[in-house]
Amino acid sequence: MGHIKQMPSPAGMQKTEWVVPPADGRAEELAKSLRVSPLIAQLLINRGIVEAREGSVFLQPKLTELIRPAQMPGIGPAVARIRRAMDKKEKITIYGDYDVDGITGLSILWELLTLLGAQVDYYIPHRIDEGYGLNADAVRALAEGGTRLLVTVDCGISAVAAANLAKELGVDLIVTDHHQPGAAMPAAVAIVHPALEPSYANQDSAGALVAYKLAWAIAEEFSRGPKLEPKLREFMLNATSLAAIGTVADVVDLRGENRVVTKFGLQSVADTKLCGLRALIQSAGLAGKGVDSTAIGFRLAPVLNAAGRMGHARLAVELLTSTSEMRALQIAEYLKDQNVQRQQCERKMLKQACDIVVERGLNHPDRRSIVLGGEAWHAGVLGIVASRLVDRFFRPAIMINASPNENGVAQGSARSIPGFCMLSAIQACSSHLTSFGGHKMAAGLTLPPENIEAFAADFETYAAANLRHEDIVAKMHIDAVVPLRQFTRDLVRQLDLLGPYGEGNPKPIFATKGVRLAAAPRRCGSTNDHLQFAITDNTATIRCVGFRMGGLEKKLVDNEYFNIAYEPTLNHYNGNTTVEFIAVDIQFE
What is the rounded CA–CA span in Å between residue 557 and residue 191? Predict the structure, then answer.
């Protein structure tokens, strides 16, 4: 979700291209209608919001704007089957994915069904031993354990074989998912999926939001009137916090309904009644500081994900559904330690991967993709490292653990760039693969280790045919080029109206050209990686912080004028509030 863009490493990145939209003549009128600064109006227009009514909804979202659960495709048959299972005291198992989206969605459904007195358990596959999605061994074990209704969360839409097995074993299946459906659909009594009805208004629902809608519909089923019973209403309001965490962590478009649930979910996080979430916030050092989308993306979600990456995600569900303050704190601290291990593993793998990229010339301008296989690469960290490679080299990247697992196959994770559908690319090369699945920006795959080289060659051929040189130039979208004097404290406060930030609604980035140093730059941080400096354009002087920009100190001194892109923020120190910039890119003529 990277709101603070890291500077390219010396390992061979080209200059970032700034993309600046033209000033829009409609901004003045929109600003008057909404009573905001013309610059705020320009930001709304940049995000596709041009009418005052749309702007008002965006700046002041209301929970009443959530799409009613009855409109979600497949939800009626799903609620009916769950009601029947509860009436007959059948065992229900919620089967969730091991990432944050699946963990939070599973927690919502399991907690609601538990509250309603259902006989319900949950299951999450082991990321490394079982891999993504519904698998035959798990289905067989759950059937033997007495499960009669299996409800998936954030997976299942492509599990045709496992669904057929469930049917053979007398287990009814309800699929709730948001991943791209394939040509064949799983045999299920109900499939709850936004893409099954093209007219459904939120095609970008996260898996957690799909699960939230099913929980909402079940709550309505068990309420006697048009309004939810008080305990169910309270639960659904509290559950917006989990839906928001899953939505932000899954990097779906944070406009429309996703923005509404995230906005209110973040508000409910602050005073959550879930002791597991409180423990998670405390262990992350965020207690009393407020939790925004950046905190979820960079502080909370990685800790929850660490459970599945380094161990078993069942522990993260236990945390989120715990009713014991002591147990919750124990799990939160353990997962925090697991995340530190994940970070160490990630740094080691990333260095190895970058060295290979440079050695093999995969960063050459004529190359269109990066596919790497490495012995004993940790399968739980492959996706993160693939994302880092995309950030650094700006081309589709696939990381593969070449050491075969117990099934004799190598596992890989893929991440893409805007405009290149990763799922279509992998499908085009699927003759080399054992299995695959995912969506436009991310996917997973397995293949025999001996096929890695041929797969990499075919993938590069496909990428070369579908990506032009300009497609693999890193781009930074600048909201406006403005003089420094515009950034008053009031304007920077108004920028908060645009949050929560994320995919589709990025944190605003501005640029000022032809600035010069107003004070000598100074390296800072424990390893002197960061830079503090002040700039002026003769209209104002503003202090800046450049994270991981320490290496630019001499260049800043040597160049009289330069262009800077930044995120404005407010610095509160010793009772004084001043405008400060987080520098995200510096360009020299």
Answer: 61
3-state secondary structure 168-194: HCCCEEEEECCCCCCCCCCCCCEEECH
Per-residue pLDDT of 30-79, as tens digits, reads 999 999 999 999 999 999 999 999 999 999 999 999 999 999 999 999 99
Separation CA 83–CA 80 (nearest Å): 5
pTM passes above 0.85: yes
The Cα–Cα gap between 462 and 414 comes to 15
Q: Span 509-521, mean pLDDT?
A: 95
Nearest to 480 by CA among 35, 44, 10: 44
Query: In this predicted structure, which of 289-303, 349-363, 557-571 has the lowest mean pLDDT?
Result: 289-303
Of 256, 257, 278, 259, the closest CA to residue 269 belongs to: 278
Omega prior to 500 cis, within 30 of 0: yes
Amino acid at 583: A
How far is 387 from 339, CA to CA, in rounded Å?
17
H/E stretch holding 484: none
Residue 533 phi, psi (nearest 5): -160, 165
Structure tokens at 214: 């099913």
pLDDT of 13 reads 41
Q: If residue 495 lies in a helix (H) or strand (E), which one and from where to where?
A: helix 489-495
Bond preceding residue 181 cis, omega within 30 of 0 = no
Residue 542 has pLDDT above 50, yes or no: yes
Alpha carbons 49 and 411: distance in angstroms, whole number: 42
Question: What is the largest distance, in Å, between two alpha-carbon atoms of the chain?
Answer: 78
User: Measured between alpha carbons, how far apart are the two ends of the chain, in Å?
Assistant: 29
CA distance 442 to 180: 11
Q: 106-110, 184-188, 189-193, 524-528: which has the minimum mean pLDDT?
A: 524-528
Alpha helices in 169-274 (DSSP H): 207-221, 230-249, 257-270
Report which of residues 6 and 207 the model is more confident about: 207
Residue 340, H or E segment: helix 325-360
| Inter-residue contact 92 to 151 (CB < 8 Å) | yes
DSSP string, 406-433: TTS-EEEEEE--TT--HHHHHHHTGGG-
E strands within 79-189?
91-96, 120-123, 147-153, 172-176
Residues 6 or more apart whose CB falls under 8 angstroms from that of 473 comprise 14, 17, 394
Count the neighbouring beta carbons within 10 Å of the beta carbon of residue 112: 23
Contact between 479 and 495 (Cβ < 8 Å): no
In the sheet with 410-415, reading across from the earlier edge strand, the strands are 370-374, 397-401, 410-415, 442-447, 435-438
- Token pair for 533: 């400096």
pLDDT digits over 285-316, tens only? 998 888 999 999 999 999 999 998 888 999 99
pLDDT of residue 224: 82
SS3 211: helix
pLDDT score at 14: 52
Residue written as tokens 């891999």? 131
Mark 58-70 as b/e (b = at least 16 C-beta within 10 Å). Answer: bbebeeeebbebe
Q: Count other C-beta atoms under 10 Å from residue 355's C-beta.
A: 11
